[in-house]
Structure prediction request, 335 residues.
Amino acid sequence: MKPPRPVEIIGGGLAGLSLGIALRHRGLPVTIREAGHYPRHRVCGEFITALDKDTQQALHLAGPLRGARAARGVVWYEPDRPSFRLQLPEPALCLSRYRLDAALASEFTGLGGELVTGDRTDATPRAGRVLTCGRRPATSSPWMGLKQHFRGLPLADDLELHLGRNAYVGLTMVENDTVNVCGLFSRQGGRTLPEKCRQAGLIDLAGRLEEAEADEDSFCAVAGLDYGAPRRRRDPVPLGDAAGLIPPFTGHGMTVAWQSAAVALPHIDLWSRGAAAWEAAASRIEYDLRRRFRWRLWAGRVIHPWILRPARRRWFRLLHQSGLLPFQPLYRLLH
Ligand SMILES: Cc1cc2nc3c(=O)[nH]c(=O)nc-3n(C[C@H](O)[C@H](O)[C@H](O)COP(=O)(O)OP(=O)(O)OC[C@H]3O[C@@H](n4cnc5c(N)ncnc54)[C@H](O)[C@@H]3O)c2cc1C
Prediction:
């Protein structure tokens, strides 16, 4: 029997690390090349929705997710006034990326995987190379994401979602009584989270953040976010954000990253064992990803502008007030 072919994963975020862990559980040789280091803070709402049991089992996520808080209650503020409350159909999980990514990285190396950090690799396609290097920055996006951890910031429910002018901000409790505050804002003006909130008309929230204790080291920002239809890439196997961005209000990008890794897993396994050609594995993965995520990404892109623009958002509020908001079907469409 020939030894299995080595798999190379570019990008040690959620998709890359979890795929690496699952391949190592199957005894296959894997190297992950990651531009950054662990632990590190990431711009992320740290709110994981609709992560199914099959994906958790396929990727062996139980260990890395240990300690995640379950969350179900959501309160929407528009702007600064509670507009409506709802319960998620299934509990979400809340865990900081600082802890989660580091736990995944140590699980991977503990299983004998090779993790090369501080290595920004060029993403030239080649057999056995999987791209999990996150979103491709857009040159002309109006959006930027900011995130910071706070202490001493009581919440009205598991998730507070504040809708402002061209902005939304999520607040959720992660581990150690820490609240993660993460938002999507217009790129113009303001540098800190309170400044951005004020600019978006979220005056009370800005005041609450100024009174709380900010963890300065956790502040991070990201620009160039493109929520348009993904351009077709010539890379053979992009997974997670590298394959297409789902807007963050769904709280679903992390789950999509994991689910895409689970979709790719059996095909990469076959290639590594010499039972499939790389081109065949890559086109099966592309086909399966399209089938699984096409409608979710489309629905997220369509609803995204309705959440951001106050004039359109009014319709959501009116529908909810009249009991006609089809929340469950919308949730299912997006998840
Ligand atoms: C404002 C905002 C809020 C969000 N909130 C949520 C939320 O609440 N819930 C949710 O589920 N999702 C949320 N998301 C989305 C979520 O963060 C992403 O969907 C998820 O991180 C995607 O995982 P990934 O593995 O594809 O990419 P990432 O986690 O981004 O990992 C990519 C990795 O690749 C590395 N890399 C990049 N280029 C190279 C290279 N050339 N060589 C080597 N390494 C490279 C990067 O350093 C990074 O570690 C949010 C996103 C934003 C912007």
Notes: The chain has a mean pLDDT of 91.
